[in-house]
Amino acid sequence: MPDGRAAGRDGAPLAAGGLSIAAGTLRTLGPAAAAAVAAVAGFDAIGVRFDTAAPEPGELRCLRSVLDATGLGVLDVEVVRIAPGDDAEAAKRLCGWGAEIGARFLLVVSDDPDRGRTVARFAETGRIAAEHGMRAVLEFMRFTSVRTLSDAVGVVAAAGAPGAGVLVDALHLARCGDEPGALAAVAPELLPYVQLCDARAVGPSDAELAFEARHARLMPGDGQLPLGALLQAVPADAAMSVEVLSDDGDARPGIDVARRAIEAVGRLLGQSWRGPSDGAVPAPAGAAVALEPMEVDRWT
């Protein structure tokens, strides 16, 4: 792990499997700028969201330049959305872009009420991901067709895709009515990483669940979710991704959001965050100067 990256007071990594900041946490920034911010803050990796739209010309090259200059990795790319009438080629395109930047996981959700079709499409998506050196993970959410942990485990098992897994998001686990102890029944190899955020213990109405997930999450430790128990329940080598989609965060400079996120994880784990010894990040190809901590948001 690069020096100064996601380390506690004893110099040990905060997360054995690596600490990432999800694309949604820095959604006001482009991928290259988000990567620069993440590196300055001290993360090991980032998540990148492409959906199905092609990246802008040069976008992947600029992102690759930041990744190469900083040693930052890409934990996941998102999102393949299974749905009636969906684009059968979307997974191939997304995996191609993900492979270019060295992504480890492909995030998949399903809005298809036909379970058989969800299983078949996830099996095919998992195969495509494996061909590109990635693993497909299925995320469950109470407001999608794969609503619960048990739903997701069942789909992944039925699909039999190589290396596929289940993505556990702290908020979605709580809102589907499960406790962290439910993960004990899941094979560890199906749980490669976990998404962290916080929220009120009592959730909103069903009609407001999607809004909460996309606009009103809290930083770890700022709510009442059982995050400590969750981290005890996931495999010790699982990666962590801080996913805090928040209108409040959108209004703040990205570097402030990233620093708050990594400090929150440090507190959650009972460690103090040790930031990078050097605050500057080399500029992407085409940028004139190095990216200083408080200037990163100016580069897009």
Structural descriptors:
single chain, TIM Barrel, 8-stranded parallel β-barrel, 34% helix
Tell me what the structure shows:
This protein has helices at 31-41, 59-70, 90-100, 115-131, 149-159, 170-175, 209-215, 227-233, 247-250, 254-268; strands spanning 19-21, 45-49, 73-82, 105-110, 135-139, 165-169, 193-196, 239-242. The chain has 300 residues and is α/β, with parallel strands linked by helices. It has one domain: Divalent-metal-dependent TIM barrel enzymes (TIM Barrel, Alpha-Beta Barrel). Helix 4 links the parallel strand 4 and strand 5. The longest helix has 17 residues, at 115-131. The radius of gyration is 18 Å and the shape is globular.
Q: List segments where confidence is low: pLDDT < 50 over at least 5 consecutive residues.
A: 274-300
Domain count, please report it.
1
Structural class: alpha/beta
The quaternary organization reads as single chain
**What percentage of residues falls in helices of 4 or more residues?**
25-40%
Describe the secondary structure blueprint for this structure.
Elements: E1 19-21, H1 31-41, E2 45-49, H2 59-70, E3 73-82, H3 90-100, E4 105-110, H4 115-131, E5 135-139, H5 149-159, E6 165-169, H6 170-175, E7 193-196, H7 209-215, H8 227-233, E8 239-242, H9 247-250, H10 254-268
Parallel strand pairs: 1-2, 1-8, 2-3, 3-4, 4-5, 5-6, 6-7, 7-8
